[in-house]
Give the backbone structure.
Amino acid sequence: MNDLSTTAQAMDKAADEAAEVLKVLANPSRLRILCALLPGERCVGELEEILGASQSYVSGQLARMRSEGLVSCDRDGRTIRYKLADPRISPILERLYDVFCPEHVKLDLSQSVNA
């Protein structure tokens, strides 16, 4: 196998991975959930309030993103707190935030929600 073939295979693999991430980001609700998790961990109730969506809908979207490896969760007693799991997602979300979010809807990304 030559260098060009190896490079093409690596590019194919990277493009496939990027396309899978972009599929998840293409859903506005999932994108909003990920943006809400950018500053730090949140529980489902907090995400419900931010999105104005039902608990079952938010939980379903989180389950999908967990299966994709984009979010993970920690249990704290009866509360499950979700956070970004894939470190490649934060810079993508931050850039989308800078480009698309008007100032009046931006979360303060410089502070953790747990502070």
